[in-house]
Design goal:
Blueprint lengths: L9 H9 L9 H46 E8 L17 E9 L5 E9 L7 E7 L4 E2 L5 H54 L4
Helix pairs in contact: 2-3
Length: 204
C-alpha cells in the first residue's frame, strides 16, 4: 500500500489560500488581485475603528454647534393651561411622566397673548403653569438639542461609519475584480490566437 501523503503545514495551506505560494500558473492579474484583497482587508481592519472615532468626533462637534444655535434662538417661557390635560386622575400615573395635550395661553413678544396646544402632565387642572419653549417670534418650538440626544447621534454615526467604509471598499474590490477579469480574458484571447493555430493547424 502506498503511504498517505502528509498534510501540508498550516502556513503552507494559508499561503496557498492567499495565493502567496509562488504558483507559476497564476497570472499577473491574479497576483495583483491577491494583494488588492489583502490591502482592502487591512484597510477595513485598521480604518474601521478610525472611521468610527472620526465620525463620532464630527457628530459631537456638529451636535454641539446645532445645540448652541438652537439655544441662542429659543427660550423657556411659562404657559397657563386653559383646560385640564386629559382626564382627571386621583393618583399618580405609573412612572409619573405621562403627558397629554391641552389648550394653553402664553405671552409672546407682542402685547397680545398666544394660545395653542402644549404638552402637560396628565391630569393637570386648568390654570396650571407649564414650561414651554418659544422661538424668537413667540411660537412654540422644541427644546434645544440635549446632551443625551447628541450622545445617541454619536453612537449611531460611530456604528455606521465602519459599515459604510466596508461597503465602499467592497465596491472598490468588485470594480477591481471586474477590471481584472476583462484583462484576464483579453490575455487568454491573445494567448489562444498564438497557440491555437499550432494545435488546430489553422491559420488566423
Amino acid at each position: 500500500m502506498s503511504a498517505i501523503p502528509a498534510r501540508p503545514p498550516r502556513t503552507t495551506r494559508l499561503a496557498r489560500t492567499l495565493g502567496l505560494d509562488g504558483n507559476p500558473l497564476r497570472r499577473a492579474t491574479d497576483r495583483a488581485m491577491i494583494w488588492i484583497r489583502i490591502g482592502l482587508l487591512a484597510a477595513v481592519l485598521a480604518g474601521g475603528p478610525l472611521a468610527a472615532i472620526g465620525a463620532g468626533h464630527w457628530m459631537d462637534h456638529a451636535g454641539m454647534t446645532e445645540a448652541r444655535a438652537q439655544a441662542a434662538g429659543r427660550h423657556r417661557a411659562q404657559a397657563v393651561l386653559l383646560e385640564p390635560a386629559g382626564p382627571p386622575v386621583t393618583m399618580a400615573a405609573p412612572g409619573g411622566d405621562d403627558q397629554a395635550q391641552a389648550l394653553a395661553r402664553w405671552q409672546g413678544p407682542g402685547t397680545a397673548p398666544r394660545t395653542g396646544e402644549v404638552l402637560a402632565a396628565l391630569g393637570s387642572p386648568a390654570g396650571s403653569a407649564v414650561a414651554v419653549w418659544l422661538d424668537a417670534a413667540g411660537n412654540l418650538t422644541r427644546p434645544p438639542l440635549q446632551p443625551a440626544q447628541i450622545t445617541d447621534r454619536i453612537i449611531v454615526v460611530a456604528a455606521l461609519a465602519p459599515t459604510v467604509l466596508a461597503l465602499s471598499l467592497l465596491t472598490a474590490l468588485l470594480l477591481a475584480q471586474r477590471l481584472a477579469d476583462r484583462r484576464r480574458l483579453a490575455a487568454w484571447d491573445a494567448a489562444w490566437s498564438t497557440v491555437g493555430p499550432q494545435w488546430t493547424g489553422r491559420r488566423p
